[in-house]
Structure formats: C-alpha cells, structure tokens
Amino acid sequence: MVKGVLLAAVLLLSLPLQALTQLSASVDKNPALRGEAVTLEVTANARVAADAINFRVLESDFTVMVPSVSTSTQIINGQSSQSTIWRIVLLPKKAGSYTIPAFTLQSLSTKPISLEVLNETAQNNNSSNTELFLQGSMEQQQLYVQQLSYYQVKIYFNGDLQRGSLSEPQMDGASIMQVGQDAEGTELVNGIRYRTITRRYAITPQRSGNFTITPPTFSGEMIDRDSARYNYFARTKTVVQQAEPVDVVVNAIPADFPGNWLVAGLVTLTEEWSPDITELKQGEPVTRIITLSAVDVAENQLPDLKQGFPDGLRLYQEQPQAKSAERNGRLVAQKIFTTAVIANVEGELELPEVSLAWWNSQTNKLEHARLPARTLSVAPIAGAAEQTTTISPALNVAPPLATPTSSSETSPWQWNYISSLLLAVWLLTLLGSYVLWRLKAPIRPATQTQNRVSFNSTELKRACKQGDATAAKAELLRFAHQQLDQRCQSLTEMSAHIHSAELKNQLIKLNAALYGNDAATWQGEPLWQAWQQYDAGRKNSSVSAGLQPLYPQ
Hints:
With 553 residues, the protein is of the alpha+beta class. The protein is 24% helix and 39% strand. α7 runs antiparallel to α8, α7 runs antiparallel to α11 and α10 packs antiparallel against α11.
C-alpha cells in the first residue's frame, strides 16, 4: 500500500508541465441585483502561480473579496491534464452597466464580460430563491460635526445558516463603535418568513462635508438546498451579501454657538448635597454633587462645568468621573462633579446659576441646561457667642494693665529681649511637634496597607485611635469593596452607599482633612464610634451603584 502511494507521487512529480492553451472567464449570474454578490471565475488549463493574475483593476467598480485559488491534476488513460481556477466574489458598488475587463496570462486573454446590475435590492425582489440579504439604514443623514447618530444593519435569511461574519461599516473622518448586543427576530417579506439579526453602530463624524457610509459585508456558509434534497450529507455553499451605501451630509459647528460645542438628544443637570442641608455651619464640611447627563453622546464628549463658587468658601474638588451605558439601543453618558465645601464666614452666601449650552439634535435648536441660583445661610460656630461675651470684660480691663512703665519707654532692649525669647520658645515648640509626628508615622508601614487586601475592623479601630487618616481611608474603602460590594475610589463615592447620617458626616470630615492637608491633626474617635453604630445595625444586603436617574423627579 505504501509503495503504491509513493509510486503515484513519483509519477505525478515526473509529469511534464502542461503548456497553457486555454484561458476563460465567467460569472455566476447576469444580470445581478444591487447589493447582491457576483462570483467571477477565471480558469486556465495549466498549473500556474496563484498570483499570476492581478484583479485589483476591479476595485474601482466593485468591492473585491480575497480570491480563492484551486489547482487540480487528472490522469485518464495515461493522459494528464492540469488546471488552475480563481474564484473572486464581487460586490457592485451601485446599479448600472459594468464591463469586467479581459485578463491576460502568457499571451492568452479572456473575453471581456458585460455585467448588468439592476437598481432593485434583494429584499424587493419577488424571487423566492433569495435566501439571504442585508438592509442598512442611518437614523439621521443630516448631521453636525461630533453629532452621534445610529446606523443599523439587519441580516435577513430563510435558510440554514451555519456560520458567518459581518464587517463594520466605514466612513471617512468618523469614529464608529457597536452599541449593545445583536438582536434576533423574524420578519415577513414578500410573503416569505425570514429570520433576522440586527446590529447597531454609533457613528460620530469629526469633520464637515459630504460622505458615504460603506456598508458592512456579510460572508458565511449556508446549507445547499439542492444537495440536501438528494443527499443526507448536504454540502454547504458560500454566501456573500452587502447592504446599500448611505449618503450623509455633515454640517459645520454653528459660528455663534456659545461655549464648548455639545450636540445631544437630551441634556440635564441635577444637584445633590450630602448631607442634605437647610443651612451651612461655619467650619463644617458638606459635599455638593452635580450630575451632567446626556443622551446620544459619548462620555468623552461631555464638557466641564463652571460652578462659580463665591468667596467665603474653602473648596476641595475631586476629579470629575465620566461613564456611559446603553439603554434601549441608545447611548447615555454621565459626568459627576464632586466638591467638598467648607464655609469660612457666617452670614448668607449666593451660589450663582450653573448653565450649560447645548444643541438639541431632535429640534435643531440651541438650548440650555440649568441649575438655579440658591442662597445659603451659614450659622456661626456653636459656642462662639458665649466665648465673645466672656472675653469682652477682659478687653475692658486690659488697657490699664498694659500701661507701659517708664523703663519700657526708655529702654527698647527689654522689648527685643522678650520678643526674642518668645520666638525661641515658638521655634522649639514647632521642632518638638515635628519630632513627635515623625516618631508616630513609622508605627504603621505603608507597605502593610498596600499588600493587605482584606478588611480588618481592628486595623480601622487602631487607625482611628492613633489619628492615622490615610490608614482609616484605606480600611474604609476595603470595607466598601468587600462588605458593600462597591468598588469605590473615594470616600465621597462610599458615602453615597451609607445610610447612617452620622457616619456619612464623619466620612466627609475625614475627606476634608485629607484634602486640606490636616490629616496629621485629625481625630478619629468620632468616626470609630459612628462606624460601630452603623455596623451593628447593618443588614446583609448589597447596595448597587449605577447611573444617576436621567429624568429627575
């Protein structure tokens, strides 16, 4: 058996190369429908190189798929014959009359082929033999620069689809991304029940002009119905289809648009204070959270806000956090601005209106999203009035006691000596405080916080007792991640999932101490007491974190 196989191989290799005497070309259908694939087949009656013919001349009128090349050798009654066959799938770019040019190989040429592409799509054809076709559509064909719109492609098929792949649409000067998952369904077309697969893309043009969306191409394998009728082991056939091109007009940004350009289907601004306040207290921190929400916008398109805080407030602003999600086939983006606010003076403070200009893509008009101005009352520090009353009598008695003696008037050396002594004592106090701070810092190595990944209430208690603000923050974030199932990046995020008003207030104070570089003087005992009370009454339930409501009540 082995000797027979080796002998056949030697005979095949020893056969002389056959001279090329015939070269022909043909297409599998003529006329063809717009959006329907045409297979061009070129046959040579000799074994030649796979790249012997260049098919790039077809790219001006067709989308040309990668050619498949096959070679064969037959021996009949001692006579051998060889052949090379190229099969190229062509997708006409538009309806009309085309001429497939002649191809030349070794002084032989094929005959040109006249191909007619009818201005009728596969889905409008009454033929019951249409097993698969594509339909593409653009939600809006008149756009502005950076306006997001949706392109949808739907695959119709009524055969046994084995496998397939769908390319992405293409558009010059635009970013394209898929939105959501593929949706399956059924639809009745010309009396034929088709199964459908729908895919959506978000297309955002980056420059103005007239453009054409190159439609996606589907390539797959289907069961050959003709062979299935007579053979249990049915063959498969390759199917290639393309949707129709779509023309898009992109307009430039209006010259008179105020501020940073933002075009969307809907934009809203919402405000939240944590804890909820009726008035501020001097020296106590509160957190202002502003949420900017927009429909049909990517998260990287959301601009920053100008909040315009007045004087008399100490501010600690976090880095804005942006995120996006898909809802009912549309993109919704949000950007959250978090600011810790501490009032320095008592009285009334006026927070100005927050306004954001945006272009409504549904009405094609300029609109503004606004947060109204509000007046905040700042109450004085508790006990400030009693302290003032106690000090006032001392001020009335002070002038007689401070009457200078004749010696102080005549000798400036005494004043300089006392001042120098006080300065030395003050410097020694600062030096002692610094030494104590340096001795306390190494008690807890930094690597311990970084390497340990499990929350430990004992470590939180130790950090609070020793006034270690950084370690307390790290333990609290571990607690939020492991016990609340929330990947919080800051104490402000964590406070949104805490229902205890006292613990939430202590978290804000800890955050303000860290932002204000007051971590060395922070007292953690109130935080530890508040956390103990919260943990004792906490139920075993997760608090899910997601996008803020788009339509606030």
